[in-house]
């Protein structure tokens, strides 16, 4: 019995307290991260991952922006897409929420880098480059949010357990954040990663000082700070500036295909790649990334012509007609028409679709070509396109510079840069004619030129908004004319040019204000 | 008990031997295993296989107590007799005398907590693959909701929504916690089930008992019994008897075209009579094509018996349930076997249970990479499919017809066909073994001390495969790469428990029981998955045959350490006291918050044993009891208190892959135990010599520091909702159970009714008490969880004038659109005009159970229901959308048109500019969920003794049974008792219909 009692006592009081200390075998903790150069590099790469998700450049930034423009209409069974295109999207729309969500996830990641990396004991030059990229990406995040939602919460700090409800910032503060971020990125990023010394050497696609400068100029332009815009953009054009390393590529289509990515015209692109290039078996739509994610874009299949993809959108007839207003110097159609739109063009020897003879009943049918694989030696593989998304290209720098100069009353300078972009399309030299334009005539010309050069590039709606076309109190109010171009504008009501703040977000965050699209 | 008899037989004062047989009063069958106890002592014996017993009593003036699970206890004075034959009256639900509580048993009369029990016989009345289904409608205060696919895991809630996380109760099988689902276990092995509802009863399981505890005891063999072989089995067919009325081709096309015209859009060519693509020769009834007759069968063989020192019970079980959807599954098949043995020597007893099960399930999985676009459950896809598409199209790879964007424009899933192409299989191998040893350290008449050590190991090995061949199915659903996922999950739980039990009598009137114990539990999970793609035909779907082969995996561990003690004190069978305390440590919390203490106490007063209270004669028993106690909950994921880096964040630079790492989720480091405090008062009474049994209870529970993933703004940038201690909830309710038993005569029966109410209130939501929104619901302090929330309709606009006079709704609002109420009178209808539209939680639950016997016939009718809640049906709303290319409910035929203005259904217009589809109280958007389900109707016939003797068997019963025979409901969907999410209890996302089963069965014992 004594022996038994002894055993019992042992069994009863086997202490196991230390066995309750179990560490997560799957992931490092934040306490052990942010130490080494490798950590800093991994964190810097991880920021970019937010750009390749559905709510960002994988699909919805292009789709929801293009859909609202006068050059593009929805033709889709997906309600959210046509509701957005018709300015009638409910605030409960999933895709709208994705855009909001993915941009804030990007910003959260950049805020981590900007919080932790400054105190890390790593090479200063590398540290500067990483911080510069974080500023660039945060600036880009807020730039997209500002353009799509008008007013949003701004934070440069990490989330605080006690107060998650960041209030809506004023437009001034929001844009100041964008200017500050792009300015910091301009100072900290290198012109190129080709010759930097460090683990990021040769990593094409990281944000450069040129990209930051271009985006800074663009942000100033969007806020009508013409001189500031001109000053920044000039740094990319003026041969004496170290950042003036860009040039237009000869073939316009090279800006939208998979074989000429990161070319001399490109200031910043989002890097997509096919599973054949970078592996992966899980679609990169959203949420919690893992090492097995693909890095594909859905845009090509979403836009691809009837029978070859979802064909969720069609170019508007107005856009097609706009391309046909002017012929090239050699009497042909504007080559950008062929690169932008699938249409039946026997005169241009362009009558096939994905290699098939014209498959449609009507020879008037038109479909998007830009950012699809039509005409390229690649099939349209479901939602798995590897075509990079060009966020900013040199043609835009030139056109924006021209616009700033026009607003600064330097019409001859404006004319010169407009023509430089027209030259690539082989359009007649009208520099002299444009130089004599009034500011307003030049604005109209710029609106026309931008509609063609940047059709289906997620820019047009933002141009239309900043030009006051939706502002009933502005002399440039243009909705009645837009309704002629595209019946989708019929259901527009003031404010609907923006995406509504997601209802779920308004429900959760009492400090968040609705925007004009919320009714 | 026989062991005790051995010891006591040595005594020799005025003792005498008594023998006899015990039979069932209603069937006259001998009852083996009946406990016989000399009153006031611990001496006793039990009956053998023929119902015979023999024991020595200290004095001829003693009284014998006969007790047996499922039968009324009977006390018989010996009065000098040496032969006492007894017939025991069977009992149901109430009044069973021995109750299994945590780490021990108790006489029912001594119970002070809230415990309900269900016997094996009772459980047999309903046939299901999952034992927890059998709780439905039988125990007041227990809400069981389940879907109708084979192998569906029911949602069981004991006394309401007590937490925002996993609110399933804790299941204990043979003393070992097995988690919050018991699908792998065969209901045929179950001897009895006890449901511990209040804190006092469940407190001994403190840490995980906050949602209630279900204790399951499996069958054991009986001493001195020859081998008994029993077979029971049934076969039945399953049919979905409900049909959702949807429009056929012509009405679909008419309604769709009307919506297009109203929006000024072109008609879909397939619906446009003037188009070449017009479809006039296809009219598919998808429910007819997609639903089939399923079947279910179960065969169980049970071998049991025992000698003087060892007893055994061995069972083999096979269950097969083929579902009612055309294609691969849902199906569920289970093979299981169990060996339970108990051996004794001297003061030691050793027991073990070994359970092994293998299940094959074809589940309705979705591969979101293949079926993109956020598909609803397949049953919703089936019902909402448009009639102008056929099922087969041999020109497509895979042979399935699919919609064309230039014909149908619709995105719908061809369910009967895709379900034949996709194969999702889950195979489970589970081994669950327990072993215990007890030692009677001290064994005197009035002082007993027993030590018990119990170890168990539970290992579940799950293989999940998902195969997708190449297929074409229209413009939206295509798969160009055949792909295979083949994964394995391994779950283990190891438990060691040590307990010491002391039992003492002090004088005549003081009984004391003390329990001390310690347990340590460790659990682990390993997930692994293999993937490969681009298989070529002919397919050999194993991972080796694909390309892009990738592997993934993760691992988790948790541990729980506990100490506990309990005191039961009984004064003269009049005053009862139970006090319990438990201290738990969990690895899921940071060291500073690791431990929680959970005390409880309860008291009972047996009025009928009180001499100074003269109860009227018709009262046979009357007990009042009350309890108070705290329980804990840690049903959350592992490691949630630490911030981690996601190490797999991919990107590429000009086509060169890089793998980054960054924090993507936010954690609250200071999370601690969730605590539930429950108060319970109850009355148990029997009247007219136990003809009527009544049990009534009122409870109130408050859960504090609820562990919940509180939605935070997306602008924080995290991919998760961090689990925090947010919120406080209160539940209260009244539970009444009433049984009438007619036990004499040829026709005997029991009629039991139970009824419970539930009211729920949120006392706090943590942080700033910001409300939590679910699908069409809002949860706010002061109200109950997940109330429906939205706009109030006030009719339909009949004219442009009415629209101009009304608060502004939308630029596109037109006659025929819904008129929403401007609740804040600001002249515009926006999010501020939403309000609460009703409860999603059933406030009343009820069950009605009749079982009767007439001679050799037995009958059962069992019904249950819920009331007091409204249902948001995803399926109905999809069928009634004013936009989108889906089929329509026939209710849509009564939509507003300029000719049909007296209706509450708005016009059809594509694009829905007025957003008529928003959450509101419009007709049909929130439907009354009240229902009464006839769960079981059965008739059985037991062969008379003559026949069984002739056949050489000891008993034979054959029966026919109808399950889910009919449901009285006004709800326009399949199941009004669907499973749902915590914050949207009234949201039916697409519950799979419960089929009606018609079964024949046979129970035979040799």
Q: Helix segment count of chain B?
A: 10
Largest sheet of chain A: 2 strands, antiparallel
State the low-pLDDT regions of chain B, or none: 1-13, 92-96
| Spans where pLDDT lies below 50 across 5 or more residues of chain A | 8-13
* Oligomerization state: heterodimer
Mean pLDDT of chain B: 88
Greatest interface: A-B, 117 and 103 residues
What is the CATH topology of the domain at 33-207 and 468-513 in chain A?
A: Serine Threonine Protein Phosphatase 5, Tetratricopeptide repeat
What is the rounded distance between the termini of chain B?
Answer: 26 Å
Distance between the termini of chain A: 82 Å
CATH architecture of the domain at 98-218 in chain B: Beta Complex
Helical segment tally of chain A?
21
List its salient traits.
heterodimer; A: 519 residues; mainly alpha; Serine Threonine Protein Phosphatase 5, Tetratricopeptide repeat; two-stranded antiparallel ribbon; 21 helices; globular; B: 1006 residues; mainly beta; Immunoglobulin-like; Ferric Hydroxamate Uptake Protein, Chain A, domain 1; 22-stranded antiparallel beta barrel; five-stranded mixed beta sheet; 10 helices; 54 strands; 47% strand; disordered N terminus
Task: Characterize the structure shown.
- The complex is a heterodimer of chains A (519) and B (1006).
- Chain A is mainly alpha-helical and 519 residues long.
- Among the domains of chain A are: 33-207 and 468-513, Serine Threonine Protein Phosphatase 5, Tetratricopeptide repeat, CATH 1.25.40.390; 289-375, no CATH class.
- Chain A has 21 helices and eight strands.
- Chain A has helices at 2-12, 37-49, 54-58, 60-67, 79-85, 94-116, 124-149, 171-188, 209-222, 226-237, 275-278, 299-303, 317-323, 335-340, 394-407, 411-424, 431-435, 439-453, 460-466, 479-485, 503-508, and strands at residues 72-74, 266-270, 313-315, 341-342, 352-353, 356-357, 367-368, 389-393.
- In chain A, strands 1-3 form a two-stranded antiparallel sheet. A two-stranded antiparallel sheet of chain A has the order 2-8.
- In chain A, strand 5 (352-353) and strand 6 form a beta hairpin.
- In chain A, helix 9 packs parallel to helix 15 (394-407).
- The model of chain A is unreliable at 8-13 (pLDDT under 50).
- Chain B is mostly beta strands and 1006 residues long.
- Among the domains of chain B are: 2-88, Immunoglobulin-like (Sandwich); 98-218, Beta Complex (Ferric Hydroxamate Uptake Protein, Chain A, domain 1), CATH 2.170.130; 249-282 and 792-833 and 882-916, no CATH class.
- Helix content of chain B is 7%, strand content 47%.
- Chain B is globular, with a radius of gyration of 31 Å.
- The relative contact order of chain B is 0.11.
- Classes of the chains: A mainly alpha (519), B mainly beta (1006).
- The interface between A and B is large, with 117 and 103 residues.
